[in-house]
Write a structure and sequence with these properties.
By secondary structure, this protein is an alpha+beta fold. The chain has 3 domains: about 140 residues, no CATH class; about 100 residues; about 35 residues, no CATH class. About 30% of the residues lie in helices and about 15% in strands. The chain has 9 helices and 7 strands, in the order ββαααααβααββααββ. The strands form 3 sheets. It has a 3-stranded antiparallel β-sheet with strand order 3-5-4, sandwiched between helices. It has a two-stranded antiparallel sheet with strand order 1-2. Strands 6-7 form a two-stranded antiparallel sheet.
Length: about 325
């Protein structure tokens, strides 16, 4: 959770910054950009007895912080790591996110990371925190390149609070719209969505697609004794493939109707499972205008029992068993 980049006096939306409900590993980045102290590892030199501070950006940080996950002491990401097979004019060095994405990729060879369970979850959280903090530190030290003076932050802050003492203002760090999760990113995404609606018309379908940890693509790749919670990398990868297939079917193949516009966003539940909210816009001739159109798209009936696979999917995922006064009931959502 990172509240960095909020404007002075801005009210916090409780739906964006609410507290987690599950007792699981989470990430908290306190403070504002540039004020958060970097994590490090302090080691004692074998010869000389002095203490050496290893930065989180040093290649030796990962094997020193997680010796059980890196049994051979493999180096982590470094700032000057060259990118192989790069084309002319493209990026010359490997980014932190790309490096850890490749390290998390599952191969048939033994990878101690995927056996770490709770320690593996902590490692992933640590990687996310380092990657985001590294991006924030870059923005802090490159405000001139971002032309932050064009935002007129000092004038805006003083205009919001006329009684604010100028000595209390300090230095303001501005997050551009390219930083995911920043207020400007949110506003830009909202404006883009409103532009699509204004051009193509009102929305017709609000579709929610949720990850299912019981998918065979996930269960077949779990190691012995593992659950889906132990392999969040695998869950995210399978879910991404499912989302691409859903978008191809709904938006291009016309599973529901012809689609002329779509807007979607990805969110993560409190228990680590991702889901997307997909908004669809139909052409004028196929707009949802009456009950028959709704019945064509939405069904509250159980499929025929002869269709075994579909019947088992609906009864397992969309029905709940309730016990009321000793009578078992099947209740549909």
């Amino acid at each position: 959770m990172n509240n960095a980049g909020r404007n002075h006096g801005e009210e916090v939306d409780p739906r964006r910054y609410n507290a987690p409900l599950a007792n699981e590993i989470a990430m908290i980045l306190p403070g504002e950009p540039g004020e958060v102290g970097n994590r490090d590892v302090i080691v004692q030199c074998r010869y000389g007895g002095g203490l050496l501070r290893m930065s989180e950006l040093a290649p030796s940080y990962d094997p020193l912080q997680y010796p059980l996950l890196f049994l051979a002491g493999e180096d982590g990401w470094s700032n000057g790591l060259p990118l192989q097979n790069n084309e002319a004019g493209m990026r010359q060095r490997v980014t932190m996110a790309a490096f850890h994405g490749q390290r998390l990729h599952f191969t048939r060879e033994l990878n101690a990371l995927h056996y770490g369970r709770r320690l593996f979850q902590q490692y992933i959280i640590d990687v996310v925190a380092k990657t985001e903090q590294n991006a924030l530190n870059f923005l802090v030290h490159n405000q001139v390149k971002l032309r932050a003076e064009l935002y007129q932050g000092l004038h805006d802050m003083l205009a919001q609070d006329a009684v604010l003492n100028a000595a209390q203002v300090g230095r303001r760090i501005l997050l551009p719209a390219t930083f995911h999760g920043s207020p400007r990113f949110m506003m830009q995404a909202y404006q883009d969505a409103m532009a699509i609606v204004r051009s193509l018309g009102i929305l017709d379908v609000f579709l929610t697609f949720t990850c299912n940890p019981s998918w065979p693509e996930i269960q077949s790749e779990l190691l012995e004794g593992q659950t889906a919670a132990d392999r969040s990398d695998l869950v995210a990868r399978v879910f991404q493939m499912k989302v691409k297939k859903l978008l191809r079917g709904v938006c291009k193949a016309g599973w529901l109707a012809q689609v002329i516009g779509n807007i979607w966003t990805r969110e993560y539940q409190k228990r680590d499972l991702p889901h997307i909210h997909l908004l669809l816009i139909f052409p004028r001739a196929q707009k949802v205008t009456n009950m028959d159109d709704i019945d064509r798209l939405v069904s509250a009936e159980l499929p025929a029992i002869e269709n075994v696979e579909l019947y088992e999917t609906v009864t397992k995922c969309l029905l709940h068993d309730l016990v009321d006064r000793g009578i078992q009931m099947r209740v549909a959502w």
